[in-house]
Design brief:
Its main location: cytoplasm. InterPro entries: EFG_III/V, G_HFLX_dom, GTP-bd, GTP-bd_M, GTPase_HflX, GTPase_HflX_N, GTPase_HflX_N_sf, HflX_C. This protein is an alpha/beta fold. The chain has three domains: about 90 residues, GTPase HflX, N-terminal domain (Rossmann fold, 3-Layer(aba) Sandwich); about 170 residues, 3-Layer(aba) Sandwich (Rossmann fold), CATH 3.40.50.300; about 60 residues, 2-Layer Sandwich (Alpha-Beta Plaits), CATH 3.30.70. It contains 14 helices and 14 strands. The strands form three sheets. A seven-stranded mixed beta sheet has the order 6-7-5-8-9-11-10, sandwiched between helices. Helix 3 links the parallel strand 3 and strand 4. Helix 4 packs antiparallel against helix 5 and helix 5 packs antiparallel against helix 7. The chain is elongated.
Length: about 425
């Protein structure tokens, strides 16, 4: 669709500091993003400005320096750690005679590589098309050229109009497919809400260790790697938590500073799991030097998707990379767990996470002594499945005595399924 230079795997990187936020820009994270995309960085060009230049984003002298770096290294692409306007992208491509990609394009490329499920691929394509739509007007060098050929001569559609229409049609099609996916997820959420099953959603900065933690506590085999955006597709698993019963745990896409708005919009169905959660597990890389900035970046995205009011528990991960650090639970003035220090990789401190989850999610607890007749074997089996039996003994008349402890919600649910349950309670 574009008459543009082809992008390659060898790049010149450009990172500009602006006086007002020099501290918050992170060159190292940009380089990690580039390596996550499978691109080799041949040279890094840095500089500082008070504001972006309208023509090249950087000054004309710096733009010439970037073009010289491309010639000297033989790079096939220039990657900016900033959002470029379509005009700036086009002007830089003319000057450097190679493909120019901004931060949004880079993140979209990584997402395209990582998407595994049908839904994930649709979400990435939607974000890519929305990004592309803003660049169409600069993408063609023959905007006024109209289609030729028999039956197509004269005042027909220009190439630009045709492409705009095709893009709109494709975006509409993807949106309708994603709406179906969203409806299915909504039905699942409603069923869980009806059954009083709490949902715990893992959130956090990209590469904080969410998928490793998810695998550790669910024995799942979700793809986990030491790279940015290893997880794109939401994965749900059921857990059994003491004094709570069944809980659904959701692993979600990682957040990052300056996350493109197109991506937030495209991943609406995925992020809905976060918005509808009972509790957020905010996984934090405790060994990262910029831990506070990462927390702020995640909080910003949570505010953007209207999930900032949901109760959260901070999980300080990777303490095995900190010297002399022991796992522990931090509590507020009321004694409620607010922070758990652990290592998902080594398993250090995981029992403390289970304890904190139990405390944060459990409501009232029902404790009863039951006298079950021999024909109530199915009820006894269900109580074992719920891990509710604390003690069991045989009675002289052949019945079974049980000491049970379980959440009041689970007790009411059992009472509906087994109307005789209240008759078995020893008053």
């Amino acid at each position: 669709m574009f008459e543009r230079y082809d992008a390659g795997e060898q790049a010149v990187l450009v990172h500009i500091w602006f006086s007002q936020d020099k501290e918050s820009e992170d060159l190292q994270e940009f380089e990690t993003l580039v390596s996550s995309a499978g691109v080799e960085a041949l040279q890094v060009v840095t500089g500082s400005r008070k504001s972006p230049h309208p023509k090249y984003f950087v000054g004309e002298g710096k733009a010439e320096e970037i073009a010289d770096a491309v010639n000297a290294t033989g790079a096939s692409v220039v990657i900016f750690d900033h959002a470029l306007s379509p005009a700036q992208e086009r002007n830089l491509e003319k000057l450097c005679e190679c493909r120019v990609i901004d931060r949004t394009g880079l993140i979209l490329d990584i997402f395209a590589q990582r998407a595994r499920t049908h839904e994930g691929k649709l979400q990435v394509e939607l974000a890519q098309l929305r990004h592309l739509a803003t660049r169409l007007v600069r993408g063609w060098t023959h905007l006024e050229r109209q289609k030729g050929g028999i039956g197509l001569r004269g005042p027909g559609e220009t190439q630009l109009e045709t492409d705009r229409r095709l893009l709109r049609n494709r975006i509409t099609l993807i949106l309708s497919r994603l709406q179906r996916v969203e409806k299915q997820r909504e039905q699942g959420r409603q069923a869980r809400a009806k059954a009083d099953i709490p949902t715990v959603s893992l959130v956090g900065y990209t590469n904080a260790g969410k998928s490793t933690l998810f695998n550790s506590i669910t024995s799942a085999e979700v793809y986990a790697a030491d790279q940015l955006f290893a997880t794109l597709d939401p994965t749900l698993r059921r857990l059994s938590v003491t004094d709570v019963g069944e809980v659904v745990l959701a692993d979600t896409v990682g957040f990052i500073r300056h996350l493109p708005h197109d991506l937030v919009a495209a991943f609406k169905a995925t992020l809905q799991e976060t918005r509808e959660a009972t509790l957020l597990l905010h996984v934090i890389d405790a060994a990262d030097l910029r831990v506070n900035e990462n927390i702020e970046a995640v909080d910003e995205v949570l505010t953007e998707i209207e999930a900032d009011e949901i109760p959260s528990l901070h999980v300080m991960n990777k303490i095995d990379q900190l010297e002399g650090f022991e796992p522990r639970i931090d509590r507020n003035e009321e004694g409620v767990p607010i922070r758990v220090w652990l290592s998902a990789q080594s398993g250090l401190g995981l029992p403390l996470l289970w304890q904190a989850l139990s405390e944060r999610l459990s409501g009232e607890i029902a404790q009863h002594t039951l006298n079950l007749p021999p024909e109530a074997g199915r009820l006894r089996s269900r109580l074992y499945q719920l891990d509710a039996i604390e003690e069991e003994w045989n009675q002289d008349d052949g019945s079974i005595g049980l000491q049970v402890r379980l959440p009041i919600v689970e007790w009411h649910r059992l009472s509906k399924h087994y109307p005789a349950l209240s008759d078995y309670v020893i008053k």
